[in-house]
Design brief:
The protein is of the alpha/beta class and 253 residues long. The chain contains 8 helices and 9 strands. It has a 7-stranded parallel beta sheet with strand order 3-2-1-4-5-6-9, sandwiched between helices. Helix 1 runs parallel beside helix 2.
Length: 253
């Protein structure tokens, strides 16, 4: 098992890409903390599924926009397990509005949720990772950090900020054997994208604009890459933006 006995924290672990990563990590032997905010029942379903498959998991509530919640999360995991090996910063929200319609409240909400939360949690786990001289921090970004999409100005800005943050973290933390990387999905079938997935016109447009002509990816398509970044196989991988998008970023269609 590639992650045997590793302790992993996965935020937004109750659904979508986060849930797929939680299951994959557990299958590879990790003790998985399935972090949720509003969906306790969904988180518990993920935990129950993992345990039924012989894995180890626990559902933990945390509002990642609140510093007190973040500290309680990290302190609780340390008390229970004595170490933290993997942090996946998977929380992300988008407000689909044209640039001129985005409000400062929208901007603040997305920056607090998408980038401030990962900054805060990373700061909280790094002292332990430095002490044990081992750690994997993964930010779930998006191809929107590098490509222009209408109605995603503030969301894209959070993902661009994420790229800059990761590079600086690599400069400061890599000497402690802490790997910090990004995983950037393209269009994925997740609860947040449900209105687009079920819209036949939009789904067909996504399909035609994807070189593979497969349209929306499954959340599970991100699980393998996330396992790789969390494993010792990626020990020399620092600051990578691992794009998983069925080729959208590679070509002009």
């Amino acid at each position: 098992m590639r992650l045997k006995d590793n302790v992993a924290i996965v935020t937004s672990g109750s659904q979508g890409i986060g849930a797929a990563i939680c299951k994959a990590y557990a299958q590879e032997g990790a003790k998985v903390m399935v972090v949720y905010n509003n969906s306790q029942s969904k988180a518990q379903l993920i935990v129950d599924n993992i345990i039924a498959q012989g894995g180890q998991a626990q559902a933990i509530h945390c509002d990642v926009t609140r510093e007190a919640d973040g500290k309680a999360l990290v302190d609780g995991v340390m008390q229970a397990h004595g170490r933290i090996d993997i942090l996946v910063n998977g929380v992300g929200i988008a407000k689909f509005k044209y640039f001129e319609e985005q409000t400062l409240a929208d901007w603040d909400l997305m920056f607090n949720t998408n980038i401030r939360s990962g900054f805060m949690l990373s700061q909280l786990v790094v002292p332990q990772m430095k002490q044990q001289r081992y750690g994997k921090i993964i930010f779930i970004s998006s191809i929107a950090a590098n490509l222009g999409f209408k109605t995603l100005s503030a969301y894209s800005a959070t993902k661009g900020a994420m790229q800059a943050l990761v590079k600086t973290m690599v400069a400061e933390l890599s000497e402690y054997n802490i790997n910090v990387n990004l995983l950037s999905p393209g269009s994925t079938d997740t609860p947040g994208n449900a209105p687009f997935v079920t819209d036949a016109e939009i789904s067909e447009q996504i399909k035609q604009n994807t070189p593979t002509k497969t349209g929306f990816m499954a959340a599970e398509d991100l699980a393998g890459p996330a396992v790789f970044l969390a494993s010792t196989e990626a020990r020399a991988v620092h600051g990578l933006d691992l794009i998983v998008d069925n080729g959208v970023s590679a070509v002009s269609v």
